[in-house]
Amino acid sequence: MRAAAARVALAALLAGAGSPLHAQAMFRGDAAHLGIAASAAPREFHRVRWVFPTGARVVSSPVWRDGVVLFGSDDGNIYAVDAATGRQRWMARTGGPVSSTPALSGERLFATSYDGRLYALDVRSGEVLWKFATEGERRFEARGLHGMQPRTQTFADMYDVYLSSPLVVDGKVVFGSGDGHVYAVDAATGRLAWKFATGDVVHASPAYADGLVVVGSWDGRLYALDAATGTQRWAFQAGVDPLIHNQQGFQSSPAIAEGTVFVGCRDGHLYAVDLRSGAPKWNVDTEGSWVNSSPAVAQGRVYFATSDSARYHVVDAATGRPVQPVGSTRAYVFGSPTVAGDTVLLGVLDGSLQARDRLDGRLLWEFRTEASRANRDWVLGADGRFNSALLFASSWGDANAEGARRQQGVGSFFATPLVVDGTVYIGSADANVYAIE
Fold it and tell me: What pTM was estimated for this model as a whole?
């Protein structure tokens, strides 16, 4: 009976992508990754209900099951926390940072770890049911990356902060890996169903619609794979940057709606691509600024933000034309927007969680971490923007890595906000997870 009920629930999920009933089961809410919350967000800030500390940065986005918030931490643990009180229910240890968002299906939780394994846990107890080993994890890397010196040195990308978050579809768990493959593993047993080789690291999270799994790779291609077999249906080629590898790669994860795939790229574009053929429909040129943010799609509009240019965009899903004036987020955005009723929530790397009106884009309220308000070492300038001249005074690799570390010291929000019953849950680089009302 339990297995039959799980199959019925999964069928309902796939039939109604974006349905609030299932909006908290995996990264971006559902298999299509539309970024729609189960309930409305508060229209004004009231208080922080609780703060849960972990041992390291939290870039994993929380998911929800029966009054419990579940997420990973870069301290190597997966946590289950009571949503009402912030008290720990259980903790499961992995062998590396858990920079992925868990996926829930039936009585199981699935998450990837930097130890190169996919974990299946009992969602009630945290017991490890099985582990699947890939060929190993690594960050994207290249010689002279981002113009860093020395040019002949290979650098790991300090901005490659996420792991691929699992997708559960048709009894399989699908995810990408730093070994360059996309994997599909049997959800019940952990046995390999299929794997597909791309040209580089895959840390974007796959989305699903109409029998296709769609995911981008750091090789600059967006792939559509048959969900049953892993056979490639098409590949869309975005920009490449053979000189310093700055303007290339998919860190954004796709959202799929009405036969269209919406996805950002580090080549400075948001793309709309036909789901069946991979043919481009339109794109938004962000003038070289990365689109690491995974777009949200709701009521005919696409919501996304940029990194370097710190802009908040809302465009028409059919044409890509702006439907609101472009807004300023003040600092870089890697996290993805959540549409929650008439409010859009967005985490920013300056340590602020911003709430905007869905219809006109105006800022309703923002919460800032204690580290952001303290602004130690003058990470933020007087205008609230990053003090890049101080943080990145040198192009030498070690200096850049230290600048990125200090930048995150303000409690950067890399995670996607979760909204349930009017409460917002989100993790921060300050190692805390917040419940905000």
Answer: 0.94
